Amino acid sequence: MTMPTSFLRAVGGLGAEVWAQWHELRHVMAVIGSVLFECVQPRYWVSAVRKVFARQVLAIGVEPLWIVGVVAVFVGISVVVQLTFWVGEAGQSQMVGPLLVAVVARELGPVLINLIIIVRSGSMMATELGILKINGQVSALETQGGDPFTQLVLPRVLAMAVSAFCLTVVFILIAFASGYLFAAWLGKGSHDLFLFADTVSRAVQPKDIGNILAKSILPALFAGASCCIGGLDVGSSDNEIPNATQRALTRSVAGLFVIAAVVSLLTYL
Length: 269
Prior knowledge:
By secondary structure, the chain is mainly alpha-helical. The protein has helices at residues 5-39, 47-62, 65-89, 96-134, 137-143, 148-186, 193-203, 206-232, 240-268. It has one domain (23-268). It contains 9 helices and no strands. It is elongated, with a radius of gyration of 22 Å.
């Protein structure tokens, strides 16, 4: 009994897609490894690289501060206030700190910040590099003896990782502060700021700090490498840029949730 041709085509297409994604994953991991290796080599940090890195940090980590602040305020009002209120109602006030650290600092903060960076800056990064590739500026850089990886990829990937960590810290602080102020205003939480800060700080353990570092930096490295690869892999047509950007963003978001899940499993199980 022969198998239907449509079924064989579907299986073949699935296998080709899986192989393509595996190839992309290997490429991304190779880029991340090269970035981490070269970023500690002083000879790679020439003036042009430092300027690109500074511009990328400004675009990725400074310009979206207002977006991060608004999201953090709403998270603080909705999550921190509710946790404080319901834990108090249940007579388990000693659990406020651990729950706030677990929900806001360990989970929501790194994931939301990376989503903001991927959607806002990742798409911009892939599009920008795609335009440079199509306009021949990447080839011109190679002709002049420059290294496209060092001058285009390295500063962008590192800037995304540094910005993700810094914005995560800002997000957590604003969320806690706004949640405390709103709860105190409603009369649902403690009015003692130092007591609230002490409760949260006592709940933070070394593994929580490592978790926050990993969940903020690793997905950002993955997203930065994916977006750079997507932008530089376009051919000679402008029509390829939207598709390349979409694939890079999809891969980055999927990588974010996979990395977050793996880090949680390795840290707390």
